[in-house]
């Protein structure tokens, strides 16, 4: 039986995506994203499932930085899960949830629900937790405190909390991308309509137009870029690496030639993986 690490505890959004992708596997929760990735890196588990980007709040930087700086795992697949954030409270505090002293949740969930929180419970202290499910579990274990959590409906059911406000995320079409990381090939029994390649590019220092030349290597070959962003190299201020996602569209040979051209220009390319994208309902 496969062992799958996920950002826990049980009933987190990562858990939902993992359970749908691996219904017959042994799912093992880890408290942080680096802990999940490290477990797969050390082969304590077969696969790690971690979030990498959200529609509203953008990239999950801890995942991106760990992949670039520390991990040798490959992205084997991408799961896209609709995200519905709900506000929940311990049953004994249902009538007084607007007087809650703290709002607990993962930083991404708090950011996705910021407008509702500042409008409805602006006096509550906002406190980040390792995951949305962790926040729900904490409230369940501390009924004496008037606390609220932003989490999934499954978390409310799992930890016997009462939902007092539904769908508090700022966008109706809120989705999160999760990546499956492993040393081995992973195939899912699902229909995929897209295939992507993710890579990082580090440019040579002080070369005018270097980024333009990198993008031109893809452009004139008519390779479809779906994402580009920069992240600090964590060396000195002002130095960055670039993260690029491409749609494959049966252009593997052209993409490989583009990578070779970038390397001839002095760029350093790290390919994180070529993988299928699976939407989950």
Task: Sum up the structure in keywords.
alpha/beta; D-Maltodextrin-Binding Protein, domain 2; Alpha-Beta Plaits; 5-stranded mixed sheet; 9 helices; globular
Describe the structure in brief.
With 281 residues, the chain is an alpha/beta fold.
Reported CATH architecture of the largest domain: 3-Layer(aba) Sandwich
Oligomer: single chain
Low-confidence stretches: none
Q: N-to-C SSE series? A: EHEHEEHEEEHHEHEHEEEHEEHE
Number of domains: 3
Record field, number of beta strands: 15
The CATH topology of the largest domain is given as D-Maltodextrin-Binding Protein, domain 2
Average pLDDT works out at 91
Strand composition percent: 25-35%
Number of helices: 9
Structural features, described:
Pfam families: PDT (PF00800). This is Prephenate dehydratase. The record marks 176 as: Essential for prephenate dehydratase activity. This protein has 281 residues and is α/β, with parallel strands linked by helices. It folds into three domains: 3-83 and 174-182, 3-Layer(aba) Sandwich (D-Maltodextrin-Binding Protein, domain 2); 86-165, Periplasmic binding protein-like II (D-Maltodextrin-Binding Protein, domain 2, 3-Layer(aba) Sandwich); 194-275, ACT domain (Alpha-Beta Plaits, 2-Layer Sandwich), CATH 3.30.70.260. Helix content is 28%, strand content 34%. It is built from nine helices and 15 strands. It has helices at 13-21, 33-41, 61-69, 107-112, 114-120, 132-141, 153-158, 210-219, 252-264, and strands at 3-7, 26-30, 47-54, 58-59, 74-82, 86-89, 102-105, 125-128, 147-151, 162-165, 175-182, 194-202, 224-232, 240-247, 268-279. Helix 1 (13-21) links the parallel strand 1 and strand 2 (26-30). Helix 8 (210-219) runs antiparallel to helix 9 (252-264). The longest helix has 13 residues, at 252-264.
């Amino acid at each position: 039986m496969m062992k799958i690490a996920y950002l826990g505890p049980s009933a987190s959004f990562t858990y939902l995506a993992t359970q749908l992708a691996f219904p017959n596997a042994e799912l093992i929760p880890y408290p942080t994203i680096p802990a999940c990735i490290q477990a797969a890196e050390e082969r304590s588990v077969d696969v790690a499932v971690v979030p990498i980007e959200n529609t509203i709040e953008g990239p999950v930087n801890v995942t991106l930085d760990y992949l670039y700086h520390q991990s040798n795992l490959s992205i084997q697949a991408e799961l896209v899960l609709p995200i519905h954030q709900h506000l929940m409270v311990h049953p004994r505090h249902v009538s007084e949830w607007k007087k809650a002293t703290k709002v607990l949740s993962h930083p991404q969930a708090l950011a996705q629900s910021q407008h509702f929180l500042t409008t409805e419970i602006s006096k509550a202290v906002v406190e980040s937790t390792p995951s949305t499910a962790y926040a729900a579990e904490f409230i369940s274990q501390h009924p004496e405190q008037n606390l609220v959590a932003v989490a999934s409906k499954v978390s409310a059911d799992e930890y016997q909390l009462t939902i007092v406000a539904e769908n508090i995320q700022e966008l109706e079409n809120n989705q999160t991308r999760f990546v499956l990381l492993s040393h081995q090939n992973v195939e899912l029994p699902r229909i995929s309509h897209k295939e992507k390649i993710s890579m990082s590019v580090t440019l040579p220092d002080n070369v005018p137009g270097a980024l333009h030349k990198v993008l031109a290597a893809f452009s004139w070959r008519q390779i479809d870029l779906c994402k580009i962003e920069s992240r600090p190299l964590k060396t000195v201020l002002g130095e960055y690496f670039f993260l690029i996602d491409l749609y494959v569209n049966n252009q593997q040979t052209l993409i490989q030639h583009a990578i070779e051209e970038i390397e001839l220009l002095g760029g350093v390319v790290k390919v994180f993986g070529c993988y299928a994208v699976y939407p989950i309902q």
